[in-house]
């Protein structure tokens, strides 16, 4: 579903990503863990084209979005092709990013109407089904400010799913939530994993990552330090840096 090969990214003199390669197979969940500043969120932003890589290749479902040119610098596909490729993925942000002047229903149905060309009736019906799935059908007419943080994040997940993505990215989906609201979001993501939704999740919830992911990557300093099955990486890490990081968490 997704392949990233030899990705490099700098911000001025700081190399944030150093030769990162990963693959995500259909129906699998990739968990990405690591300390703050390790490059996790930058990697996600590069994967969804919110940041441009300096070199490397990004491929979705066999379609190349980015490749290395003759000078070793990244070349991006034409804008039309990138728009087509971008329909394969969705991103759920840390801080919801809902439109404050739109109702919950309009937040979810807006992109399918304007990007996918769905009729308003079709988009509204699909949006209501997703809101019901998220336990929010009674909030369809509410506005974001009237919702709890957990409810807002569930709306943002419904909005991402409304575009029928093949791959769904989560960037620390619980980091902006109070601890008591974290569980409801993790429960939603668990249910998506049970439905074999292909996902890439950056998270600081170690037990959740261990339980829901098929493969774990531990990043530090812009490189992949260790990767493998969740039980191996989180329960029995081999690298000392991974051990040091995980020693701060109770598993």
Automatic annotation (TrEMBL):
<keyword id="KW-0813">Transport</keyword>
<dbReference type="Pfam" id="PF00005">
    <property type="entry name" value="ABC_tran"/>
</dbReference>
<dbReference type="InterPro" id="IPR017871">
    <property type="entry name" value="ABC_transporter-like_CS"/>
</dbReference>
<dbReference type="GO" id="GO:0005886">
    <property type="term" value="C:plasma membrane"/>
</dbReference>
<dbReference type="InterPro" id="IPR003439">
    <property type="entry name" value="ABC_transporter-like_ATP-bd"/>
</dbReference>
<keyword id="KW-1003">Cell membrane</keyword>
<keyword id="KW-0029">Amino-acid transport</keyword>
<keyword id="KW-0547">Nucleotide-binding</keyword>
<feature type="domain" description="ABC transporter">
    <location>
        <begin position="2"/>
        <end position="246"/>
    </location>
</feature>
<dbReference type="InterPro" id="IPR003593">
    <property type="entry name" value="AAA+_ATPase"/>
</dbReference>
<comment type="similarity">
    <text>Belongs to the ABC transporter superfamily.</text>
</comment>
<dbReference type="InterPro" id="IPR030679">
    <property type="entry name" value="ABC_ATPase_HisP-typ"/>
</dbReference>
<keyword id="KW-0472">Membrane</keyword>
<keyword id="KW-0067">ATP-binding</keyword>
<dbReference type="GO" id="GO:0015424">
    <property type="term" value="F:ABC-type amino acid transporter activity"/>
</dbReference>
<dbReference type="InterPro" id="IPR050086">
    <property type="entry name" value="MetN_ABC_transporter-like"/>
</dbReference>
<protein>
    <submittedName>
        <fullName>Amino acid ABC transporter ATP-binding protein</fullName>
    </submittedName>
</protein>
<dbReference type="GO" id="GO:0016887">
    <property type="term" value="F:ATP hydrolysis activity"/>
</dbReference>
<dbReference type="InterPro" id="IPR027417">
    <property type="entry name" value="P-loop_NTPase"/>
</dbReference>
<dbReference type="GO" id="GO:0005524">
    <property type="term" value="F:ATP binding"/>
</dbReference>
